[in-house]
Design goal:
single chain, alpha+beta, Elongation Factor Tu (Ef-tu), domain 3, six-stranded antiparallel beta barrel, 8 helices, aminomethyltransferase, EC 2.1.2.10, transferase
């Protein structure tokens, strides 16, 4: 999320659900160039808890959607991301990282093999640059088709399957990180069982012209309430998930960001498909020799009830600057201040004590495992 002076700011874009948000009493804020609902009248805390206990509906139509098609699409996409694309079965989804030539993260994304194409979802603030980058690098190898007329909704929470299954029973056969085409309330959807909250749930791509019909059908289910960006942020932080622009950006490599798990073995070691992505020499060297890392992303829990926000300096117990918080808040589910940030590798071990400097006062924190609350993805 970035800001600019009102004088220079372009008019905010709106999603296909803008009128519905206003009808529901949402407080709208600028986000990624769009007017987006930060919360509804129930408020952030109630929305967060409702998603953890029932089902929340999120408008994420600001995200970018595109597809790559053609016989060489998977091989071409592998030249841009350090991820196994060619080995992904039809109907399976994977997390990916778009890297620059220095191994820095241009964006993180999700993609699914739909058989006829690779369907990709990228972050809203990055989508124009991402699509241009992909077109420039591999547009001669496959067809790159942006999908600006698709909206995106996320239904998240332990009762999401019950609510969606009532409208489209076929989605109940999906497990985490799989997808299928489905007709929901007469709308032509592509559904993946995935999300950004740590809960079971679904992301639903739908034509913009059908988005309001779909949203109203979902909101008519007794389990479902509308949820804004505020709770989306607190949910994802408790789940230990990175926010692009805060926790990862073009200055961070996947190993610094503790995202080695996203780089499958076939892209790391030996064989014809190892390496071959932007920044591969640097990224693979950092994986092989962690001593090359200058910093590492960690989870942090405050030992006092003081919220520690982004950009807060982190110090060693003897007062040396060792890093910075990149996301932080009072976690509503865990009921204590949680954060993630970067520290010097010597301070990255679980249980290490560090101090966050909040308004000149040292707040003791401890390096902690993420997620802060257990993930509840449905794996069958």
């Amino acid at each position: 999320m970035s800001s600019s002076s009102p004088a220079s700011a372009a008019p905010l874009l709106t999603t296909p659900l803008n009128a519905l948000h206003l009808e529901l009493g949402a407080r709208m804020v600028p986000f990624a160039g769009y007017s987006m609902p930060v919360q509804y009248p129930a408020g952030l805390m109630a929305e967060h808890h409702h998603t953890r206990t029932a089902a929340g509906l999120f408008d994420v139509s600001h995200m970018g959607q595109l597809c790559l098609s053609g016989p060489d699409a998977a091989a071409a996409f592998e030249t841009l991301i350090p991820v196994d694309v060619q080995g992904l079965d039809i109907g399976r989804q994977r997390y990916g990282l778009l890297l620059n030539d220095a191994g820095g993260i241009i964006d993180d994304l999700m993609f699914v093999n739909r058989g006829d194409d690779l369907f990709i979802i990228v972050n809203g603030a990055c989508k124009v640059g991402d699509i241009a980058h992909i077109q420039e690098r591999i547009g001669h190898l496959c067809q790159v088709q942006p999908l600006p007329d698709q909206a995106l909704l996320a239904l998240q929470g332990p009762q999401a399957a019950a609510a969606l299954g009532r409208l489209a029973p076929e989605v109940l056969s999906l497990v985490f990180m799989t997808g299928t085409a489905a007709s929901i309330a007469g709308c032509d959807c592509y559904v993946t069982r995935s999300g950004y909250t740590g809960e079971d749930g679904f992301e639903i791509s739908v034509p913009a012209a059908q988005a309001e019909t779909l949203a109203r059908a979902l909101l008519a289910q007794p389990e479902v309430q509308p949820i804004g960006l505020g709770a989306r942020n607190s949910l994802r932080l408790e789940a230990g998930l990175c926010l692009y622009g805060n926790d990862i950006d073009t200055t961070t490599t996947p190993p610094e960001a503790a995202l080695n798990w996203a780089i499958q073995k076939v892209r790391r070691t030996g064989g014809a498909r190892a390496g071959g992505f932007p920044g591969a020499d640097k990224v693979l060297a950092q994986i092989d020799d962690p001593a090359l890392l200058a910093r590492k992303r960690v989870g942090l829990v405050a030992l006092e009830r003081v919220p520690v926000r982004e950009h807060t300096e982190l110090q060693s117990p003897d007062g040396q600057r060792i890093g910075e918080v990149t996301s932080g808040l009072l976690g509503p589910t865990v009921d204590r201040p949680v954060a993630m940030g970067y520290v010097a590798p010597a301070f990255a071990a679980l249980g290490t004590r560090v101090n966050a400097i909040v308004r000149g006062k040292a707040v003791p924190m401890e390096v902690a495992a993420m997620p802060f609350t257990p993930a509840r993805y449905y794996r069958g």
